[in-house]
Design goal:
Blueprint lengths: L7 E14 L5 E16 L23 H4 L7 E5 L15 E2 L11 E6 L7 E2 L1 E6 L2 E2 L17 E3 L6 E4 H16 L16 E3 L10 E5 L2 E5 L1 H4 E4 L4 E4 L1 E4 L4 E3 L7 E6 L4 E6 L8
Parallel strand pairs: 9-17, 10-16
Antiparallel strand pairs: 1-2, 3-4, 3-18, 5-6, 5-19, 6-9, 7-8, 7-12, 11-15, 12-13, 14-15, 18-19
Length: about 280
């Protein structure tokens, strides 16, 4: 299987019985679900390059994805809340939730419609981007899907980094460089591919700029600590945004942390709200 960020997983597929634990309702059991175990993975994180990654849980609308197979049982709804690692690098757990177990009905919840596309990724209507509360003012059609089906904007929990076409990326890059110039930080020249911007991190520095995505009817604001991959132990940080040749924009998981995302495929709606994902409970 090949994914939107060009990562690839290979392995064994088998039919399994899947049980989804309910709240006070026992279990929802699905017999004959197609499930896989990976033993050859490329393009994921460092730990997965030797094939250590156990697998990838498909959440798209393709017919063999976990979500599509369990569609009626989970009422075509799911949500996740991605945690921020603890200062020692360890992670707490959060839960992938289904059906009516969403837990997000708060006044600050925002929502935007998915755009239908033949490839079954989750496309959103992205209008503009801001850095440190300053709009980039990209032309209105920058992130539109073309007549041939290229371009657009995908939200993807499987990709860590966020990707933009080079024309967009280098404008964002220039804005970030301009922001950090005032702090006289040392820019590093040996960023790991495909990242193009990284800095030495002074011990007392915490002035990371926020970022925001402006969608149709909703704005996703990202705190500065989630815009970057920050290594406090080794004193450097990386911009978790990279360029690629594809016209499509892809919003990765680094910029989704500490936000509850709810996918309702009955009405093609993505809802989201700020949340401390480490407090998530079953």
């Amino acid at each position: 299987m090949k994914y939107a960020d060009q990562s690839v997983t290979k392995g064994f597929a088998a039919h399994e019985t899947i049980s989804v634990i309910g709240k006070g309702e026992g279990k929802a059991i699905f017999h004959g679900a197609l499930f896989g175990c990976s033993n050859d993975n490329h393009g994921f994180d460092e730990d997965a390059r030797d094939g250590a990654l156990a697998g990838v849980l498909g959440l798209s609308r393709v017919t063999i994805s976990f979500i599509s197979q369990l569609g009626s049982i989970i009422k075509k709804r799911f949500s996740y809340c991605l945690v921020i690692p603890l200062p020692n690098g360890e992670y707490t757990s959060s839960y992938l939730k289904f059906g009516t177990d969403m837990g997000y009905r708060r006044p600050s919840t925002q929502a935007t419609k998915f755009i239908n596309h033949p490839n079954n990724f989750y496309y959103l209507s992205l209008k503009d981007i801001s850095i440190d509360n300053e709009r980039m003012n990209f032309p209105p059609d920058t992130f539109d899907i073309t007549v041939s089906g290229e371009g657009g904007c995908i939200i993807d929990s499987g990709s860590v980094l966020t990707y933009f076409h080079s024309d967009v990326y280098w404008k964002l890059h220039e804005k970030f460089v301009s922001y950090f110039e005032r702090f006289q930080l040392a820019q590093l020249s040996d960023c790991p591919e495909p990242i193009q911007l990284c800095y030495f991190l002074p011990e007392t520095f915490n002035r990371f700029p926020s970022m925001a995505f402006y969608f149709e009817d909703a704005n996703l604001r990202i705190d500065g600590e989630n815009v970057f991959i920050i290594d406090y132990e080794n004193h450097f940080f990386l911009l978790a945004v990279a360029p690629h040749d594809d016209l499509v924009a892809l919003i990765g998981s680094q910029q989704q942390r500490d936000t509850r995302f709810v996918y309702d495929l009955n009405i093609d709606l993505l809802s989201f709200v700020k949340e401390n994902c480490s407090d998530d409970s079953a």
